[in-house]
Amino acid sequence: MLTSIVVDDGHRRYSTEEAIVFAYFHCSYSKRGPQGSQKTNDLLLSLLKQLARSYLSSPAAVRVSCKAYYPKLTRPSRKELVEALPSVATSSSKTFVMLHALDELSDGCRSQVLPALFEMWAETNMNILVTSRPILGVEEEFRECPSHDSLEFYATDEDVKAYLKSRICELKVSASNSLRDEIVEGTRKALKGMYVITISPHSSKRSTDYA
Q: Residues near 48 by Cβ (< 8 Å), separated by ≥ 6?
């Protein structure tokens, strides 16, 4: 929800400015693992496509890749995608990249995607926004970033209960009122809040704490 609001607001603010581009990706637990389709190259290629489509004419790096791979119906390698992303992003005055639910990616995928984004950030005028549950793996990976700011926030118990009760009727199984109350209470206790992590273009400010 938060990422959707940010994306919508950004498009509204900069709808008439071609030089400002957006790319976003929703990480999904259901698509991780050997049987899933959400892998490092999928994410990087999605970001590259979104950035390239923001321009009236395709950036040179995209034209070269299309010429090389389209006739063979193949895809660029991860190395080539990582090299192409900064060159596409530098064609804009501002680039916004948003990753929602980063913690839903597998550890292996996350450990490959983040260094690529950090490298892209170092070479371009790029803003990054990431949402994630507060898990140790994400915390450690962002400590490697030259500059990041983070905000931790929680939904109130009342809001969580109201939301769950409004959606619990969608369960495709019959459940007694006591069981529904147990589900609501168990979910409420399991929630651990969320981190919003931002990285601004070449900011001199460095966060010493993750939260």
A: 62, 81, 84, 85, 88
What tokens does 11 get? 């498009």
Q: Which of 142, 162, 163 is nearest to 152 (CA)?
A: 142
* 166's tokens: 């409004």
Sheet order of strands, 20-26 included:
20-26, 94-100, 126-132, 194-199, 149-153
Do residues 86 and 120 make contact, with C-beta atoms less than 8 angstroms apart?
Answer: yes
Domain ranges for the chain, please list them.
Answer: 2-154+193-199
In this structure, the chain runs to a length of 211
- For the domain made up of 2-154+193-199, give the CATH fold: Rossmann fold (3.40.50)
Q: Positive or negative CA dihedral for 5, 139, 127, 97?
A: negative
For residue 109, the tally of other CB atoms under 10 A from its CB is 21
Look at the pTM and tell me if it is higher than 0.85.
no
97 contacts 130 by C-beta, under 8 angstroms: no
How confident is the model over 98-111, as pLDDT tens digits? 888 888 888 888 88
